[in-house]
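Reopening: 3-phosphoshikimate 1-carboxyvinyltransferase still failing for me.
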Amino acid sequence: MSAHTPPTPMTARASGPLVGEAQIPGDKSISHRALILGAMAVGQTRITGLLEGQDVLDTAEAMRTFGAEVTRDEGGTWHVHGVGVGGFAEPETVIDCGNSGTGVRLIMGAMATSPITATFTGDASLNKRPMARVTDPLALFGARAVGRAGGRLPMTIEGARYPVPVRYAVPVPSAQVKSAVLLAGLNAPGQTQVIEREATRDHTERMLAGFGAQIVTEDTDEGRVITLTGQPELRPQVIDVPRDPSSAAFPVCAALIVPGSDVLVPGIGLNPTRAGLFTTLREMGADLTYENLREEGGEPVADLRARYSPDMAGVEVPPERAASMIDEYPILSVVAANATGDTVMRGVRELRVKESDRIAAMVAGLHASGVTVKDGPDWWIVTGQGAGGVPGGATTLSHLDHRIAMSFLVLGLAAQKPVSVDDGAPIATSFPAFEPLMAALGAAIERT
Ligand code: S3P
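Support: Ran it again with your exact input. Result attached.
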């Protein structure tokens, strides 16, 4: 969030049953990519269902600063008039990506193989996050980066004048790094290859193919090898952004832990690179069903139906599932606190470098609400208190992290005493409609 946004303290208290239908907004990952690839196509891309959260609005503004025309019509459709691969203009101002790691890392990739220089900054959370994971591979294309100590923003990228293609094995499981390399590869001649050991969300690959790029993914002994042929002419697209499974997670998990609940969440994407939380919840014994399973735009989609599930039990989440639910561990830990037994989460070191150190933030807040939690560098274990067994009664810090704020508010809906967060303002980065949507289901969440 902007440094100027005042903190918004919020409190959630035990609520009656959550009942009804929840219309979830557009997918954040796909929304960023639609704007960026639209700006790199020649002609006009039309986008419906775009997430109008602050993160995505910051990316839209960045694309304007690089010379694309980005407008929203009265019906809510977004129009992006792209400048073509290699057509970015040099920005006259600093690019402020706010809270968004996805925004800044993908945009750095997209501009790194053009002969222009751009300076990036963000809010207090983003300016703490590591950027070397992106600038290291961008240097292989010929780009240069100068930032603060430890590879932090603010940072200036001087794009490569004569980019060369790259073959790069991503050292951490990160769709942002993979995507930054692929977007940089667009303006390099020849073939750029990215290798990832574990499959991460594949929206960039799918969308690049949709825009007409030549891109091939092969499963090999090395991992997934993605080969992109550079310097295509991207054709503008009509994109209908699917609803975000990471946002759906909050009303779904709230329904599972609030007595008597029955909530329908229509049209949620079940792309296997994103749906790990729902698999895990079902393994815990959640009454979570997929209704009306279908395909939309090449993606599996279902209406999710979540009902109160007082008999959930802790599980060991397989580490190889981590990438497919990386943003959902905070809300999973809230469900785990309301189950019986231990929920063990290993292989999740990446949680320490998100919008906040999400393991530290959740451990501190759950502990303050009377839940037993242990953690190590890349693992944590939540000991369940059973249905309705969380004492609550704490005020927790959200650390400028939307998912931490929403997770603790959901905790408060099923705890014995209210749970507060010091600042709910960051929720607007990804899920601006969170408060009215939860209130319409019957959740007692208020600004305090
Ligand atoms: C995202 C990738 C993930 C995820 C983030 C969105 C993306 O980050 O946590 O919320 O849209 O590519 P990493 O690439 O750092 O794992």
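DSSP finds twelve helices and 24 strands in the chain. If you still see a failure, please send the error message rather than a screenshot.
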